[in-house]
Design goal:
single chain; about 140 residues; alpha+beta; two-stranded antiparallel sheet; 4 strands
């Protein structure tokens, strides 16, 4: 059973829609339930992430593709999978940052890791990133 709920300021969990309430009512009281917490991804934050990539792309001269830059930043930020080629060479492939597959908490960590990578690799500072990012949104 899956339903959507909101956590109120007092810590109470309130079903979001009538259909969610109907499912919630079916849960036995005074029993232990298992929850998987997943915050839905914020679309505006998603746009901010891609604005960050565009800003970095427009202020560098190494990459001729913003997609390749994003892939390399993804790998450099630690979001990759390893596989071995037929020649025994280890290749790194950027993990997916699919809007549908990551929740807001995971995506927030990815964004933070990207900013830290940009600071470390390009020598930018966080204030510089945030101050200039607004013009790309």
């Amino acid at each position: 059973m899956k339903f959507y709920a909101e956590i109120k300021g007092n810590g109470r969990i309130i079903p979001l829609h009538d259909s969610d309430y109907e499912l919630f009512k079916k849960c036995k009281r005074d029993t232990v339930l298992e929850f998987e917490v997943k915050q839905k991804r914020n679309y505006q934050f998603h746009k901010k992430f891609f604005a960050l990539i565009e800003m970095v792309y427009n202020n560098q001269d190494v990459y001729n593709s913003s997609e390749r830059l994003r892939e390399d930043l993804t790998i450099e930020s630690g979001y990759y999978e390893e596989h071995i080629t037929f020649d025994g060479e280890i290749k790194l492939t950027a993990k997916s940052i699919s809007f549908a597959k990551m929740d807001d908490i995971e995506f927030s960590q990815l964004y933070s890791d990207f900013c830290n990578t940009i600071i470390r690799v390009l020598g930018w500072d966080n204030e510089m990133i945030e101050d200039n990012l607004e013009s790309y949104l």
